[in-house]
Design a protein that fits this description.
single chain; alpha/beta; Rossmann fold; Alpha-Beta Plaits; 5-stranded parallel β-sheet; 16 strands; 21% strand
Length: 383
């Protein structure tokens, strides 16, 4: 099988892809691994089975188009969580203390006499506040948000968390001193610092706009390491200029935001550590090869999770629309061949579903073709 890498990927993935044709120039790949490469105008070949994003965000991948063609899209939630958490904590301190401004000012003193005295005289304009005793609002309590919330508790902050879709797993991992709220308005009204950890969707785009900012406490610090378009840049520029927002720190620079006092743009460094890159590459490679070789789906953003150990002679994997009677039609074809089904899983996710059949014998090519012809079937693989 062939796997195409569309970005530089940590060498740790090389071992997982041993035995594959793996490079940045293979043609007609069955799998693609990438980081930030923009795929929206990239041709999706007939042989392409899966795309693995070595990272969490997938807005650079045409999810809907992939789903329609039976192409599974994976991401690596949590693989870079510690790296992003550490950057958020750094920015939390920078939000209250004008360290960057002060350091830049000190550099401007080069060549002047009596630097020590000049520093003592001018340092007052860079005074800041401590985070101890302040309230942090965490919007989104996934892998990163949960870690940030726990770390802030350890720093002596009060923490409020908002996430209507929080998983049971993450809920158990969060410190019991974190106060959960079901209303975003409570975050805006009560928090001195707000940090964003939600995906970019039509519902979240521009969620921090003029109305949201107006509902915030005066002097709030807002930190965005999730996606740039979660924040309306024009509304944020106005709010920072007026002092409503004392500082905005983002990992997603926008030309509009550059060169403005109290707006700090970081060059998308959230996952830029060798540890995070290794973790993401390893996780993406493992998920991709498990799907290509075994049909198992773990951490897909467009198809349901289905995972079974290989114990039978043959495995048939079917991507299909989530519609009535399609499963019974597929099973009827298998039954007509006199082939026993040893194990089976069929899971749905919205309008689409994924079926895995472990069989005690191999289906004939004719039977496989009959399954492909069932209305609503998108893709059939025999492993």
């Amino acid at each position: 099988m062939k796997i195409l890498k569309l970005n530089s990927i940590s060498p740790i993935a090389d071992e997982t892809f041993r035995g594959y044709e793996y490079s940045d120039s293979v043609e007609n790949p069955e799998g693609i691994i990438l980081r930030s490469f923009a795929m929206h105008d990239y041709p999706l070949g007939e042989d392409l089975l899966a795309v693995a994003r070595a990272g969490a965000g997938v807005n650079n991948i045409p999810i809907e188009k992939c789903t329609e063609q039976g192409i599974v899209v994976f991401n690596t939630p949590g693989a870079n969580a510690n790296a992003v958490k550490e950057l958020v904590l750094c920015e939390l301190f920078l939000g209250g203390r004008k360290v960057v401004d002060g350091a830049n000012w000190v550099q401007s003193l080069k060549g002047q006499e009596g630097v020590g005295k000049l520093v003592e005289k001018g340092k007052g304009k860079f005074a800041g506040q401590e985070v101890l005793g302040k309230t942090l609002g965490v919007i989104g309590l996934g892998a990163i948000g949960a870690m940030v919330a726990n770390a802030a508790i350890d720093l002596g902050m009060s923490v409020m968390g908002y996430d209507p879709y929080i998983s049971v797993k993450n809920a158990w991992l969060i410190n019991n001193r974190v106060k959960f709220t079901s209303e975003l308005s409570a975050i805006f009204a009560n928090c001195d610092y707000i940090t964003l950890h939600v995906p970019l969707t039509p519902a979240t785009k521009g969620m921090i706009g003029k109305d949201a900012i107006a509902a915030c406490k005066d002097g709030v610090v807002i930190i965005n390491n999730a996606r740039g378009d979660l924040v309306d840049p024009d509304a944020m520029i106005e709010a920072v200029a007026s002092g409503k927002v004392s500082r905005y720190i983002t990992d997603f620079p926008d030309e509009k935001l550059l060169g403005r006092e109290n707006i700090l743009c970081v060059p998308h460094l959230g996952a830029s550590t060798p540890e995070a890159e290794d973790n993401c590459a390893y996780m993406a490679a493992k998920q991709l090869t498990d799907y290509l070789e075994n049909g198992n789906i773990t951490n897909s953003v467009n198809y349901p999770a289905v995972s079974m150990p290989r114990t039978s002679v043959s495995r048939v994997c079917v991507h299909h629309k989530n519609v009535k009677e399609i499963l019974s039609k597929i099973l009827a074809i298998v039954s007509s061949q006199g082939v026993n089904i040893a194990h089976m899983q069929d899971q749905s996710r919205g309008e689409y579903a994924y079926l895995v059949l472990d069989l005690d014998d191999t289906l004939s090519p004719e039977a496989v073709e009959l399954i492909r012809r069932v209305s609503g079937v998108i893709r059939v693989r025999v492993l």
